[in-house]
Amino acid sequence: MHPDCAPQVPLLSIVVASNNVGKIRELHSLFLDLPIEWVRIADLIGRSWFVEETGATFEENAVLKARAATAATGFVALADDSGLEVDALGGSPGVRSARFAHEHASDQENNAALLEALSDVEDSARTARFQCVLAVVTPGEMAPLLACGGCEGWIAREPIGSNGFGYDPLFRVTELGGTSMATLADEEKGKISHRGNAVRQLRPLLVQLVERMIADVHSY
Predict the structure, then answer these.
(1) CA 189-67-35 angle, 5° bins
(2) CA–CA separation, 206 and 154 (whole Å)
(3) What is the pLDDT of residue 218?
(4) What mean pLDDT do residues 81-90 have?
(5) What is the enclosing helix (H) or strand (E) of 69?
(6) Contact in structure between 39 and 13 (CB atoms under 8 Å)
(7) Number of CB atoms found within 10 A of residue 217's CB
């Protein structure tokens, strides 16, 4: 199935295992050309969704969340676990990126905490990268579909831009000569971001999943 030939009617519904509106919007725009309906898990279960992220890696957390969402809804589920790794902090905040300042921190609080942690670090040592792992779990199947992507950059000393979310205002993209991630339009960001790179790796796997489900229906 070629994306350009994708029908207007969705062939597959996938629940997104996240409460993060910015993350859901990004995923929807990046997969817009595929015949998939993206459903917020909160819309299915009628409340905000929470799973304790006990994994030590992005992959472990992504799989954990996808399996929990499938178990809760019976839908095919996609989960994203992503974050920022800063070399001068030994890879932190890492899997605790959303909770760097404290357990229920806002983006502004996390950005402030990161600037404080790097206050004595010289510019040349502020290298960092965004990492993303996407996991798709199908009901009745244990083995998830997995894709990962990264984006190299460094941490600036002040935020610039109002697009995106999370640490985007502080992140300067190496590939774009130091442009702030938060100044990029969605389409520009999708071309270079960690999530965009993971999506491109996941795309053929999702196409295969859609084709397999169509074949299963026709076999009955």
Answers:
(1) 50
(2) 32
(3) 64
(4) 97
(5) helix 58-73
(6) yes
(7) 9
The domains found in the chain, sorted by start residue, are 3-219 (3.90.950.10)
CA dihedral 58→61→64→70, nearest 10 degrees, is: -80
pTM over 0.85: yes
Residue 132 CA, distance from chain mean position = 6
pLDDT at 219: 66
Which residue has 């969605």 as its token pair? 186
Write the DSSP assignment of 127-182 as a string of letters. Answer: EEEEEEEEEEE-TT--SPEEEEEEEEEEE-SS---SSS-TTGGGEEEGGGTSEEGG
Would you tell me how many other CB atoms lie within 10 Å of the CB of residue 204? Answer: 10
Query: Lowest-confidence range among 2-11, 19-28, 116-125, 179-188?
Result: 2-11
CA distance 173 to 163: 14
Express each pLDDT in 151-202 by its tens digit.
999 999 999 999 989 999 999 999 999 999 999 998 899 899 999 999 999 9
How far apart are the C-alpha atoms of 115 and 97, rounded to whole Å?
A: 13
pLDDT band, very low/low/confident/very high, at 5 (cuts 50, 70, 90): very low
Rounded Cα–Cα distance for residues 208 and 11 (Å): 12
Q: Taking Cα atoms as reference points, which of 37, 138, 33 lies closest to residue 79?
A: 138
16: three-class secondary structure by DSSP: strand
As annotated, the active-site residues are: 81
C-alpha 157/C-alpha 115 separation (Å) is 7
